[in-house]
Amino acid sequence: MKIDRRAAALFVCLLAACATKPPSAPPDLVLYNGKIVTVDPSFPIAQAVAIGSGRFVAVGTNDAVRGIAGPTTRQIDLGGRTVIPGLMDGHLHNAGGGPGLNLARVRSIDELLAAVEARAKKAGPGELIVSNSDWHEAQLGEKRLPQLKELDRVAPRNPVVLVRGGHEYIINSAAAKRWNITRDTQSPPGGEIGREPDGELNGELVDTARNLVQLPPPGPVTPLAIERHMRLLNSVGVTSIRIPGSFQFGGDQVATYHLFQELKAQGRLTMRVNYLMRIFDFSSVEKVRALIASWNIKPDEGDDWVRIGGMKTLVDGGFEGGHMREPYAEPYGRGGKFKGIEVVPRSQYIPVVLELNRLGWRVATHAVGDAAVDEVLDAYEAADRERSIKDRRWTIEHFFIARPDHFARVRALGLAISAQDHLYLAAPSVAKYWGRERAEQVTPMRTFLDQGFLVAGGTDSPVIPYNPFWAMYHFITRDTISDGVYGANQRISREEALRVYTINNAHLTFEESLKGSIEPGKLADLVVLSADYLTVPEKEIESLKAMGTMVGGRFVYADRALRLQ
Predict the structure, then answer these.
(1) Rounded distance between C-alpha atoms, residue 367 and residue 210, angstroms
(2) Which of 465, 466, 463, 464 is nearest to 165 (CA)?
(3) C-alpha span between 244 and 313 (Å, rounded)
(4) Within a 13 Å sphere around the CA of 430, how many CA atoms are in the beta-carbon half?
(5) Residue range 128-139: average pLDDT?
(6) pLDDT (tens digit, 9 = 90+) per residue, 477-521?
(7) DSSP state of 236
(8) DSSP calls for 157-177
């Protein structure tokens, strides 16, 4: 039936292409002899596409599209390659890298400790050693975090802070001594200090407990750094990103936003940026109001290159601190007492959400656990009672653990879900913290789509690697890097996954009429693939590559094997 539907859709599409009035001027470029996966509502497959002035001007058969070419039109034979709309990452901070000890390639605790030891041998006495965040314990054979005593063994004279994702540090004794963290130090509200069974420190500082450590401030984001990240993302087919509150953890978000604007004005952007501002201090509505006024930034300002997309907030931690209705698995549940971390209590969160709604901001909230989602829905419903938020595409970011009683509330408010493939990398850790049964249903994409929710895909890079093909592979198969399939009942189809990483992200940012599919009049953002996404064996989706990436009618990345002449 799927083949019949596509064939019928293609027939209709080609009739329309032939009947459509040719563009007033010949196109700049024609790509022909390809498999053009349009991702328009009926999902037809075309053979060729014409591009002019940065937009698609025709889609259809080789003969129909090539027939509108003029003498100056550049024509490229795709040689049967598959073309898809430009991929979009709906939750990406940056592409990773940056200063600090790089642990991305270590594959065991011993290798990690050897890397720390090598850095310590080069460091002066007392010199701080900090890692970047491009690593995760799931990449290690032992599937666990290093501990304080292990770091002490390889770096006894140097404070060590290993930055693990966006929610946790692991420190050694020298670091604990520098910042006066002892077995008697109490966990701060919204955070957790990890301890051994005997009460001694184990080195873990989660969420607000990280504030006990004062790391050097990050250097300013530079144009060259942004361009480096864009090149990496373009090389895997990404043409649009949605930055949820910070391009660089701890960086100046206002200065970075203006830097993107400057790069756009200079013609140096190679991808489209939807930029969310972020609230960090929820202690008073007055402080929030004054902070927003100081930015001199309006909700939704911008254009199809750089646009403000709303306000990022949060209520809980990651999978080491997601706020749950039920306790964590033992021993992390501490005898049924630990249910995660309410990083921002509802007494502070709800008033801020109400104020943001009054000021005209769309809100996107980080919520991992089911109890965190309860808190978000309570706040969104309170805001809606003051001023309707229905179908304004307010968002729940992550939404790892969903419960049936959430669904009617999500639907009533017309909320969107921004989902990422954390389970692909972190499955063993998630199972360890929450138990296998709960971990199996993390990010229940099948359920979300069957409920009719708008789900937009992302990666949360650098927490999870930025390759969108890995993410799509995970959601199609529910396979993980190191622990097999989790929750096979949550698999989605290839077509659905492609929509999640293209047109659904365009819907999320109110840009569905501008991008997200290959249709006449839309922005000419596309990817030429190394193989056919729709027909390759499932395992090969994971290793698909972008042979060429186009943004606004211009190839911003091209593999040497793709002939553009």
Answers:
(1) 19
(2) 463
(3) 9
(4) 28
(5) 90
(6) 999 998 999 999 999 999 999 999 999 999 999 999 999 999 999
(7) T
(8) SS-EEEEETTTEEEE-HHHHH
Element (H, E) at 2: helix 2-19
pLDDT for 249 equals 58
Query: Comparing C-alpha atoms, which of 435, 433, 418, 421 is closest to residue 477?
Result: 421
CA atoms within 13 A on the CB side of 499: 17
Between helix 223-234 and helix 253-265 the angle, nearest 10°, is 70
**pTM > 0.90: yes or no:** yes
Contact 519, 40 (CB under 8 A): yes
Q: Per residue in 27-49, pLDDT tens?
A: 999 999 999 999 999 999 999 99
Return the bridge partners of 364, or none: 312, 395
CA distance 151 to 173: 8
Could you list the beta-strand ranges (E) of 504-561: 526-529, 546-551, 554-558
Burial label, 331 (beta-carbon count in 10 A; 0-12, 13-18, 19+): exposed
Q: Write the DSSP string, 449-516.
A: HHTT-EEEEE--TTSS---HHHHHHHHHH-B-SSS-B--GGG---HHHHHHHTTHHHHHHTT-TTTSS
Task: Give me the helices (H) in 130-216, please.
Answer: 148-154, 173-178
- The rounded Cα 16 to chain-centroid distance in angstroms is 36
Containing H/E element for 156? Answer: none
Give the whole-angstrom CA distance, residue 370 versus residue 326.
9
Asked if residue 239 lies in contact with residue 204, where contact means CB atoms within 8 angstroms, the answer is no
Q: Which helix (H) or strand (E) holds 381?
A: helix 370-386
Predicted pLDDT at 171:
97
How many of the other CB atoms lie within 10 Å of CB of 562? 17
Confidence of residue 16 (pLDDT cuts 50, 70, 90): very low
**Residue 483 corresponds to which amino acid?**
D
What 3-state DSSP class applies to 560?
Answer: coil
Three-state DSSP state, 539: helix
Angle between helices 346-358 and 285-295 (to 10 degrees): 40
Structure token digits, residue 49: 């596409």
**Residues with Cβ within 8 Å of residue 513, at least 6 apart in sequence:** 522
